[in-house]
């Protein structure tokens, strides 16, 4: 880009992380070239974004995000009645772009020409002081994009810094604005929050600042009712396991994460339906549909994940019913492993489920012959058979004497 005569700087998280001694996961570039000009320069590039157009440039497996300098808040822009920016394709200068960013520590530019750091907002001073500070008027910036409150929590957990007092107070004051964000966008932000490697700490911060209740209201309403490991102990154990898997570079499925976050509302709804006379498995299926239907009004859960989440839940009662051919049918279920892992998580959280967890652990590794022995040793499931009603005989017709 420099060779083509454009300005270009590394900016944002990659510069911040390098200065803090972390290895950046990705690199962002800011430039005075328009998205169309950038796209024309690189064959392996793609224009993306609606509110603000970006260009993704591919180098091998790496994707570098290139954004055109944006104008400051004073420039013409489209906002809704809440002050939230709806359209943001207003281009500006390097300095204008700096003042348009969210936090001072994310407004540092690395100039590859002379290897210098360009800082217009005091980001270096805040970085040295260990502060996360919002750029500009706190209320205005949070109203423009309430997701900045979620980003603040993510940076707190990830970087080990602290919030500037005004930046922090603003989250307490304006947490409810999160409800104005489209559910689909909150799904993306939720994944960033809980798959950052510090899920447990991030969750505590969301609860502390009153944000979690606007993301997952059904679960938030039950968090204070801790009993027998539910819901907080179980949820925190799930988040701890998530962090361990990420640290070990193992895959984490969002479906399992959502299953853990929403398990307590589903469990209680299932019990309520059973109290009203519905059998356990149909009750679990109905509760799963209802809870997910209510949740996606706040945080969207794409079907590719919600269907797996439902399977994890509905496998729970099936994993406890192992007699006869049931164990084999359950073992062949496509999502058996996820359901089994969830059962193990429940046992880790204190629920008396160690026996079935150990049984399934052994059952998976045994030969077909030994599996049959294990099933036979369970005995037949006790059931109360309804007595057959005897067919009442029709009374014989009385013979009448003919006179």
TrEMBL record:
- Entry's EC annotation: 2.7.7.19
What are the start and end residues of every segment in region (Disordered)? 371-403
Any Pfam family:
PolyA_pol_RNAbd
Q: Which InterPro entries match?
A: NT_sf, PolA_pol_head_dom, PolA_pol_I, PolyA_pol_arg_C_dom, PolyA_RNA-bd, tRNA_ntf/polyA_polymerase_I
Q: Where is the composition biased (Basic residues)?
A: 385-397
Gene Ontology molecular-function annotations: ATP binding; poly(A) RNA polymerase activity; RNA binding
Q: Main role? A: Adds poly(A) tail to the 3' end of many RNAs, which usually targets these RNAs for decay. Plays a significant role in the global control of gene expression, through influencing the rate of transcript degradation, and in the general RNA quality control.
What is the name listed in the Swiss-Prot or TrEMBL entry for this protein? Poly(A) polymerase I
């Amino acid at each position: 880009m420099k060779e083509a005569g454009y300005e270009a700087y590394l900016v944002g998280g990659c510069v911040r992380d390098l200065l803090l001694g972390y290895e950046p996961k990705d690199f962002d570039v800011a430039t005075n070239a328009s998205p169309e000009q950038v796209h024309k320069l690189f064959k392996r590039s793609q224009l993306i974004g609606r509110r603000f157009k970006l260009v993704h440039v591919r180098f091998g497996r790496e994707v570098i995000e290139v954004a055109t300098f944006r104008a400051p808040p004073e420039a013409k822009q489209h906002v809704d009645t809440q002050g939230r920016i709806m359209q943001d394709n207003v281009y500006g200068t390097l300095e204008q772009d700096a003042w348009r960013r969210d936090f001072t520590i994310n407004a540092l530019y690395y100039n590859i020409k002379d290897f210098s750091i360009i800082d217009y907002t005091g980001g270096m001073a805040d970085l040295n002081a260990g502060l996360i500070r919002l750029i500009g008027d706190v209320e205005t910036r949070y109203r423009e994009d309430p997701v900045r409150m979620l980003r603040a929590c993510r940076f707190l957990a990830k970087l080990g810094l602290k919030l500037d007092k005004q930046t922090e107070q603003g989250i307490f004051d304006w947490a409810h604005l999160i409800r104005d964000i489209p559910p689909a966008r909150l799904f993306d932000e939720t994944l960033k929050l809980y798959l950052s490697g510090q899920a447990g700490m991030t969750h505590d911060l969301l609860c502390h600042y009153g944000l979690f209740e606007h993301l997952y209201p059904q679960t938030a309403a039950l968090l204070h009712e801790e009993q027998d490991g539910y819901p907080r102990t179980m949820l925190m154990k799930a988040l701890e396991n998530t962090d361990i898997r990420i640290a070990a570079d193992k895959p984490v499925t969002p479906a399992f994460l959502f299953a853990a976050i929403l398990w307590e509302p589903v469990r209680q709804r299932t019990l309520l339906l059973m109290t009203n006379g519905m059998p356990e498995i149909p009750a679990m299926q109905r509760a799963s549909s209802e809870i997910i239907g209510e949740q996606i009004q706040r945080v969207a859960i794409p079907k590719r994940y919600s269907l797996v989440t439902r399977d994890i839940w509905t496998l729970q009662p099936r994993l406890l019913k192992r007699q006869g051919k049931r164990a084999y049918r359950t073992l062949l279920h496509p999502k058996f492993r996820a359901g089994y892992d969830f059962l193990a998580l429940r046992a880790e959280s204190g629920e008396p489920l160690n026996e079935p967890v150990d049984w399934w652990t052994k059952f998976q590794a045994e030969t077909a012959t030994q599996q049959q022995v294990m099933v036979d040793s369970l005995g037949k499931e006790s059931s109360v058979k309804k007595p057959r009603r005897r067919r009442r005989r029709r009374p014989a017709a009385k013979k009448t004497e003919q006179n």
